[in-house]
Amino acid sequence: MKYAVVKAGGRQYKVSEGDTIEIDLQKGAEANSQFTFSEVLLFVSDTQTIIGTPTIPNFSVVGKVFGAVKGEKIRVAKFKAKARSRRVIGYRHSLTRIVIETVGKETKGTKETQETRVVKTKTPRKKKQV
Asked: What is the mean pLDDT of residues 44-50?
């Protein structure tokens, strides 16, 4: 079984091929267009497991936008005792429904390896001895 953990809209989703997920509304995503998750945090297949630090470089998950939908209605009730004040407000969150097509597609770009990423991190300075 092949799956990945992707980050979208501040949340993490565990996805595999053929899954349908609903994420926060993406303004530029139109129906039947392709959507790419570039922030892949974890990839697991039958033969290998890749853990990102924090993300896996040159790796993506591709899905097809199904369309914009509205989430379940949330009712908010305000009540003030002894004042005969009652107010009910409803809210439905706007979501984008995406069907996952491919998991673990390597993207073209700079080939950055673990060694080059370790070099780019700041090293602690040595204290001067007096």
From this structure: 88
pTM here is 0.72
Check whether 84 has a pLDDT greater than 80: yes
What is the domain range of residue 68? 3-120
Task: Say how many domains are in the chain.
Answer: 1
The identity of residue 73, as a single letter, is K
129 in any annotated domain: no
- Non-local (6+) Cβ contacts of 43 within 8 A are 3, 4, 49, 50, 56, 59, 103, 104
What is the Cα–Cα distance from 66 to 84, expressed in whole angstroms? 46
> What is the pLDDT, as a whole number, of residue 8?
93
Q: Does residue 58 fall inside a structural domain?
A: yes
